[in-house]
């Protein structure tokens, strides 16, 4: 809308040994007209990574609530959080796990207090956070769920051209939205985690948030089976018959438009995706390889079911690339654009 300032987004800079800090620097050297981005991280770390990758950057340290400088390429406002130990690109340091979590807490607080309209997260390293003793940590998604005090959230990844629903353009093909019924679990635990109540909560959130954040008036969701050939009538597993089908039938009776459970191998083909707004995959590596094949570097991760806006990149810490300045910025650009769009749509939603 003309005259409305672009939304402020808190960008957590993620694992300090990964590519997050340099992606924040690279983003700041471009014009980002859709949002005013404030990095959350250690200013000395950001300055050091900027120098390492040969970028000139003017870091402006601020407190949450301070007025932001006029957006200008090369200027990066920062809400400072101090590293607990020196960080070298590519070398994980468990002492910095608390730093990473503090950046999340700062961003969450900024959203709660109205200093940010949403948060965008650069990747963190789950393993080093667990190694540091934060038992049970399994990712931003669950951390945000607990920090916001909600029972359930849904991880949704979407490729670029699927990001603005209501776009009449999407008719399957390479644009895709994939939500997950389970997230970061060992494969052997997946079946037990897929329960009727959980599927019901997840599909209700997915349906509601496709309407709320993407403007889709009557979302159609295709649901994968868990087993090969969606269980082959019970011969290749009973989860479809015992759990998934009853949950879908009850939700259809509530008015949700659900296809499935369908065999996952053919669901992800253009004919089956025709007219589908999102796919619900039963587990991480059932859905995300397809999404990443379709659009790695042009997709974003969105946490649905939260009382705040959170998007993220479609990739991890890429320790092998850290400090080189060669990481692809594409997904962060998509994640920022999407968070800005969601923040505008959510402007009328009451603050938490
Ligand atoms: N949003 C988040 O915080 C996420 C965090 N992770 C975490 O990241 C860590 C490493 O995970 P991996 O499975 O190794 O995935 P990864 O995405 O870090 O790396 C996989 C491959 O993709 C490449 N890659 C990743 N990002 C890239 C970029 N921007 N440009 C060019 N190439 C890129 C890497 O160089 C590597 O070859 C794990 O601890 C994982 O849990 C993974 C995904 C998302
Ligand atoms: N594979 C997606 C992923 O790991 C993202 O996790 P999260 O940190 O956003 O929960």
Automatic annotation (TrEMBL):
Its EC number is 1.1.1.262. It comes from the Bacteria. The active site is located at the dimer interface. It is found in: Cytoplasm. The lineage of its organism: Bacteria, Pseudomonadati, Pseudomonadota, Gammaproteobacteria, Oceanospirillales. A divalent metal cation binds at residues 184, 229, 284. Belongs to the PdxA family. This is 4-hydroxythreonine-4-phosphate dehydrogenase. InterPro entries: PdxA (IPR037510), PdxA_fam (IPR005255). One of its GO terms (molecular function) is zinc ion binding. Catalyzes the NAD(P)-dependent oxidation of 4-(phosphooxy)-L-threonine (HTP) into 2-amino-3-oxo-4-(phosphooxy)butyric acid which spontaneously decarboxylates to form 3-amino-2-oxopropyl phosphate (AHAP). It catalyses: 4-(phosphooxy)-L-threonine + NAD(+) = 3-amino-2-oxopropyl phosphate + CO2 + NADH. Gene3D superfamilies: Isopropylmalate Dehydrogenase.
